[in-house]
Structure formats: C-alpha cells, structure tokens
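Methods — Computational structure assignment.
A single polypeptide chain was analysed. Its primary sequence is given first, followed by the predicted tertiary structure written as structure tokens.
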Amino acid sequence: MELDLNQVLENGDVMIYSFQCSGYSGYWEYGSSSGGKAKWVRSSAACNPKDWSANTWHHVQIAYSRNSSGYITYHSITFDGIQHTIEKTVYGKFSLGWGHVLQTNFQIDGIGSGSNSTYLDDLTVYRW
C-alpha cells in the first residue's frame, strides 16, 4: 500500500511525500530524491500487508513536515492505532515542471496472483 502527496512549489519544483508498506521488505518505507531520482528508504517500523485483517477498515496516519530547502522529515506512521516513530529527514524535491497542484495518490500493488477490492474513505490532508 502506497500513499503519496505531491506539492508543486512556487518555483515549479515538486515535493513528493511518499510512504508505503512494502510486502517485499516487510517494512514501512518513505520516499527520497537522490540525484533527482526517486528511491525508497526502509524505516525500522515493520509491516506486513499479508497480516492485515480482510473485510476490515484500516486507519493510517502519516506525520511529516518539510523545510524551504527541499528536505522532508517523516515523523511517524500510525496504523490501526499503533504509532511507529520514524524521525528521518531526506531530500524530497524534484524538478518536474508540473503545473500548480496539490495531488494525492493511493496505490495497492500485489505480490503474486490474486485480486482484492480496496476502498479509500474519508481521506483528510491537513496543512498549515
């Protein structure tokens, strides 16, 4: 499961805040820009989507902040009421030439075969 928020800045650069529970690594991972290329960085917080209860609503909260130099600090991930502290700072700015937008992305990828129905409800983004 991947959750992203893309914010275009006044100068046209894009801050990409991204977080995922990787079924491959078994950890929550956060996004970083390294040399203008996106990469995933493994946190110390374990997760396994195969362990998530089926036919159940799950609650995810991601706390992060950024500075004016393009660095994002991922503070924590809370999944179904259990908070994991991250407190890692990475560079997260890309020069993509996008128009002015604040955009959310939600993705579900799978390992192996099968299918599922996934619903996103009550998505709230707070910014100040």
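Note: Residues 2-107 form one domain.
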